[in-house]
Write a structure and sequence with these properties.
The protein is an alpha/beta fold and about 600 residues long. It is built from 20 helices and 17 strands.
Length: about 600
């Protein structure tokens, strides 16, 4: 009952607001071995394997697996307990593994005494059949006939258990509670959706965030300033920042009937204090969630500050998203680096669940990412790992660089019928960067752009002077842009690749082809050359764009994602920018 920590984490979640199920029945098929490990002193530190459940005071029912009626009775007791008290209960069914591991192993090599006893035991079926015959419930002929019928059905490929023919959805279930996936089966990643939103409705929504707060609810002065700024942004009086674009995406989806569920460590406020989805009364223990008020929509907005477990929470949200195609389900890592604590869930479920089990999933993952001098544990969401797993259109990997991009991206995730995991490498410093803003018109028009062309080179004459194109993603773009403007570099174009996978080769070629005199193409990334997108994106440049001469400007190969010194980080970053823009070494950037 180990589960590499999942069991303990599941019990820890049992009564939390965001993850409780009002009782889970845990069934342990206790065959008393772990592959070849049978010595208790090697497999656990407790008397019973189910003692882990004692941390939440869950009842534990031990039952003999050789007694089918006792097992059924234990199941009834467990179900009654769960239905009555809405809490967890555990069944420890003590049994044995009659054959070796996978029914192909020779168990007596490592458990000779145990299997000498097992081989002399009649099977559970044989024991129960003899008992029923002895009690007069069945005759021996009836018992033998049941065995023959079962084997004949198996050999004919039939269903041996009539219960398996029952429909999984209860008859008479209200239509709004049924889940239909058929509309999502044939969607393509280039499918379009109208993600723009009318200006008058945006203004009304942004006003609601502030005006619906009760008059006696004391908001922190800095948070109130954020809300006041968002009202101005919604009216087009101030450039929109990331917090506005993200929150507006949730609000507009709610208005259109989509539920929104956001969970993760510190996600109510946001790790970097940009979101403020949950307001805290400064004098009383009260909360106010603006997105739940001031609207006529009936959709639910749920925001959860999760327990400190990446693996358990991400696994929960994956399961939630596989059952809810009409809900925007988001898991946010406190820092992108911490996603490594959930790698098993990513490998086993998120990246391959569709291929293995034909289960679609529209889960969104927010991974704050970017090298900003905060050290090797707070710099990288490990883009390279996701790119290694990317194949057969199993997920979407994006690095949005503007508030309008995150707005259109989140709306696109729900408004089109494409339900694949969406891995979003979100920014940190860009949350308040003066250049990472949008005008209101960027929300009322357009959509998510796979590729964004250079914002400073709009005329044919400007583009004709470009000899070098830098293709990049994320925060490094703004570092390059500021340095290029400062030093008036006119022969370099900056092109942002906002979606890394599926690779938008057609869109990228269309942008690059606007520059007729390009002599050199560069991929620039902050990450070390052995990390980030480079290794995975090279063959895509070649396959989808026929670019065989792209070279990489990055940090040198490194074992860790980033250095631990701010001074060294700044030196590396400046060197990177100079190299990408081909500036002299003595120029300050």
């Amino acid at each position: 009952f180990a589960g590499q920590g999942v069991v303990m984490e599941t019990f820890s979640m049992a009564q939390t607001r965001g993850y409780r199920t009002h009782g889970t029945i845990h069934i342990v098929i206790n065959n008393q071995v772990g592959f070849t490990t049978s010595t208790v002193a090697d497999s656990r530190s407790t008397h019973y394997p189910t003692d882990a459940a004692k941390i939440i005071g869950a009842p534990i029912i031990h039952v003999n697996g050789d007694d089918p009626e006792a097992v059924v009775y234990a199941a009834h007791v467990a179900l009654d307990y769960r239905e009555t008290f809405h809490k967890d209960v555990v069944i420890d069914m003590v049994c044995y593994r009659r054959l070796g591991h996978n029914e192909a192993d020779e168990p007596s090599m490592t458990q000779p005494v145990m299997y000498a006893i097992i081989r002399n035991l009649p099977t559970t079926r044989t024991q129960y059949a003899l008992r029923l015959v002895k009690e007069g419930v069945l005759s021996q002929e009836q018992s033998d006939a049941m065995v023959r019928e079962y084997r004949e059905l198996m050999e004919a490929g039939g269903t041996v258990n009539s219960y398996l023919n029952i429909r999984p959805v209860r008859e008479g279930l209200p239509a709004e509670l049924e889940t239909h996936w058929k509309n999502y089966l044939d969607a393509k990643w280039r499918d379009q959706a109208d993600t723009a939103y009318p200006a008058d409705k945006i203004e009304a929504i942004s006003r609601n965030w502030l005006e619906t707060i009760p008059v006696d609810f004391v908001v922190h002065r800095r948070v109130r300033k954020v809300l006041e700024d968002r009202v101005a942004m919604g009216a087009g009086l101030k450039p929109a920042d990331w917090g506005f674009g993200e929150t507006l995406a949730y609000a507009t989806l709610l208005e259109q009937g989509f539920n929104v569920r956001l969970s993760g460590q510190d996600c109510g406020r946001g790790t970097f204090s940009h979101r403020h989805a949950v307001l805290h009364h400064q004098e009383r223990r009260e909360q106010w969630i603006p997105l739940r008020h001031g609207s006529t929509h009936s959709a639910d907005f749920t925001v959860i500050d999760s327990l400190l477990s990446e693996e358990a929470v991400l696994a929960f949200e994956y399961g939630y998203a596989t059952a809810e195609p009409t809900s925007l389900v988001i898991w946010e890592a406190q820092f992108g680096d911490f996603v490594n604590g959930a790698q098993v869930v990513i490998d086993q479920f998120i990246s391959s669940g569709e291929q293995k089990w034909q289960r679609l999933c529209g889960l969104v993952m927010f991974l704050p990412h970017g090298l900003e001098g905060q050290g090797p544990e707070h710099s990288s969401g490990r883009l390279e790992r996701f790119m290694q797993l990317a194949a057969q259109e199993n997920m979407q990997i994006v690095v949005p660089s503007t508030p309008a991009q995150i707005f259109h991206l989140l709306r696109q995730q729900m408004l089109r019928n494409y339900r694949k995991p969406l891995i979003v490498f979100t920014p940190k410093s860009l949350l308040r960067h003066p250049l990472a803003v949008n005008e209101l018109s960027d929300f009322t028009h357009g959509g998510f752009q796979f590729v964004i062309d250079d914002v400073d080179l709009s005329s044919d004459a400007d583009r004709a002077g470009v000899t070098r194109i830098i293709i990049c993603a994320g925060k490094v773009y703004y570092d390059l842009l500021e340095a290029r403007r400062k030093h008036e570099v006119r022969n370099v174009a900056l092109v942002r690749l906002e979606q890394i996978y599926p690779f938008p080769g057609l869109e990228l070629k269309a942008v690059v082809n606007r520059y007729p005199n390009v002599q050199e193409k560069v991929w620039c990334q902050e990450e070390p050359v052995n990390q980030g997108a480079w290794d995975a994106i090279v063959p895509r440049f070649e396959a989808y764009c026929d670019y065989h001469d792209v070279r990489c400007v990055s940090r040198d190969a490194a074992a860790a994602p980033a250095v631990g010194s701010m001074a060294v980080h700044q030196l590396q970053q400046k060197t990177l920018i100079r190299k990408a823009l081909m500036l002299p070494a003595d120029i300050e950037v």
